[in-house]
Amino acid sequence: MLFMPQDPEAAAAAAIVVEKVVAAEGRCRIAGWRDVPSDNAVVGRMAKAEQPIIRQVPTEPLRKIVCGSWTTEAMMTHCLLSLACGSTCSFMSRP
Question: What's the distance, Cα to Cα, between the start and end of the chain in Å?
């Protein structure tokens, strides 16, 4: 999952960074993007102003993965995304 900025232009730029990093790594491909529904009815005004857009990014391996190593592959991509974004991102996937 990724926590994206509310601003549409900034979110689009962040998505491009994610796609470039994942493609450059050559470990997996992005299978799609999914907005995670959230209910902010009880969230205060200040929290709503800073609330990120949460998106899931399912991925698929590009090569055969040895059982148990997909977590390592995903974590390596997570680290590269964190460096590319300039902050800590959350990137999770299941085989």
Answer: 15
Q: Using CA of residue 16, residue 21, residue 25, residue 29, what is the dihedral sign?
A: negative
- Three-class secondary structure assignment of 47-76: HHHHCCEEEECCEEECCCCCCCCHHHHHHH
Question: Domain locations in the chain?
Answer: 2-85
- Compute the half-sphere exposure of residue 85: CA atoms within 13 Å on the CB side of its CA: 25
| pTM given for the model | 0.70
Determine the Cα–Cα distance for residues 75 and 79; give it in Å rounded to an integer.
Answer: 6
> Residue 7 gets which letter from DSSP?
S
Kindly give, in sequence order, each residue whose CB lies less than 8 Å from that of residue 94, ignoring residues fewer than 6 positions away: 70
Give the total residue count for the chain: 95
Q: Give tens-digit pLDDT for 10-54.
A: 888 888 888 888 888 777 788 889 999 988 889 899 988 888 888
